[in-house]
Amino acid sequence: MILSRRHVATLLLTLCTAAASPARAEVPAAGPLEGAAAPAFKLQDQAGRWHSLEEYRGQWLVVYFYPKDQTPGCTTQACSLRDNIFAFRKAGATIVGISVDDVASHKEFAEKHSLPFTILADPSKQTARDYGVLVNMLGIYELAQRDTFLIDPQGRIAKHWVKVDPQGHSEMVLKELQARQAKAPAAKTTS
What we know:
The protein is an alpha+beta fold. Helices cover 32% and strands 21% of the residues.
């Protein structure tokens, strides 16, 4: 059976919407605990450039995992982070999004929504697995669960938000970051 783009899009939207429902998704493996070292990664961004966790050492890093490019919740979340980019930069943080989509999908998503931050492709799903956010949807499709990690300048998990709501999430992360930033020594500011 050949599915049209519309049918595929509907299926993916259904899968992404089901990501928060434990009845439809397997629970991901446990990820790193707060205070533990963040798992290393080396992934390509929307322009095909390689990035590793190590290059962000010495600064605050917001790593948000999301299920799928171009879906309503993922778009809301990305655009909210985009709209707060200057506040995140002022707080000394870099934002990085990660999903299991490929580089080409990320490029289209970033361009369509004018995303001013890096989104990384994890098509092997290893980074999502290492962070404990890979979920199996209905036994047929693996996606990253919508989790966010705040990583401190020393490369440790400072905070982990599980199954976040895209609405208001950016502000919640920013508030936590600003509180921690106020307590911590100054870190270098980048985008």
